[in-house]
Amino acid sequence: MIEALSFAFVQHALIAGVLVSMAAGIIGSLIVVNRMVFLAGGMAHASYGGIGLAVFFGFPIFLGASLFAVAAALLIAYLTLHDRHRIDTFIGLIWAVGMAIGVILIDLTPGYNVDLMSYLFGSILAVSSADLYFMGALLAVIVLVVTLRYRDILAVSYDSEYASLRGVNVRFFYALILVLSALTVVIAIKVVGLILVIAMLTIPVYIAERLSSSLMGMMILSGIIATLFTLGGLWFSYSYDLTSGASIILVSAAGLGVFLLLQKGKR
Predict the structure, then answer these.
(1) What is the pTM for the complete model shown?
(2) Could you tell me which of 183, 181, 175 has the C-alpha nearest to residue 152?
């Protein structure tokens, strides 16, 4: 794969893989500790409505998916803030409606034949310079927010009632976590597609959770693990001429399997 590094699209893919993996590690940890894993799939599928809007009105697809995903996240935050045990119900509804809107708008777009496979299973080799800037900016925002407000996010994630008594604005941080999750899901779609995005956000976190004793440690370790899985998946994809998104998830699953075997052996 060394000779492939001379190509710009391969360089873009590697940079995108690292940026998205680090963001997925941080946000995936928050999704897991807040017990909102289903959120990842819901946001991914809901963002398809934004893809349909972008295609229909002719603006950048990344922008359309991001705006739609953020709107869906804010709606979920509003509906579930005081009734969080019903979050799966609302996510399922928004999931279905978002997909339906996207499909209908694409059908109504005259003369447009969209490549559904690139959105379902990712197209990391098609990442542009503008995509990289967006990914880098989002990762910078995530790192900045988590670093500056770590204690508040920690309190809201593990005990929102205690956080409220401490004077933390639970409503704001709950919505913020959802919005950052939605944006991370959108950029992860570019790497592994909306079908496989849940695996990318949860497999590294599952491993990191068992090797770390704090939320911050879990975020850092899961980001590193996700990066290794992504780079390994890209190498596997290039070596055997396979779909990159599916290859990344297969490498992640294999890594999880090895980890579980080692854990079982220790016990």
Answers:
(1) 0.89
(2) 175
